[in-house]
Amino acid sequence: MVKKIFHTFFLFLLTCQPIYSITAEEPALPPSLEKELQLANEQVTTTFMDKFIYMLFLLGLMIALLYIGVWILKRINSTKKIAFHETDTVKIVEKHSLSLKTTLYLVEVFEKQILIAESVNGISVLTEISANVKK
User: What is the 3-state secondary structure (H, E, C) of the chain?
Assistant: First the structure.
């Protein structure tokens, strides 16, 4: 009985085996075609490496250009702020952060200096500083 089950199971495995798993001898290629196939495989490998190295070079170049562009934009933006504040009647002379949500501003309006506090509760004028007080 056990032998019969074993034989049935073995035959079942043999019949369920996919056809492609049965190995067949591949016909041999002529030597000229084998050389061409080998050269094509080498060219594909070198072409891939060349393209990969070129891609890494372009990535580095783009990152460098992005960094230079950001640096130039920061420089342009900071010079515009300085030139813009020179002609204003309201100038922020100094800014000092007391905490994350509280900041003191020293503002000059029509040649008067005013100390202003900004917080979560709002903005309040603390005092007006006389023109005699200088650094």
Answer: CHHHHHHHHHHHHHHHCCHHHCCCCCCCCCHHHHHHHHHHHHHHHHHHHHHHHHHHHHHHHHHHHHHHHHHHHHHHHHHHHHHHHHCCCEEEEEEEECCCCCEEEEEEECCEEEEEEEECCEEEEEEEECCCCCC
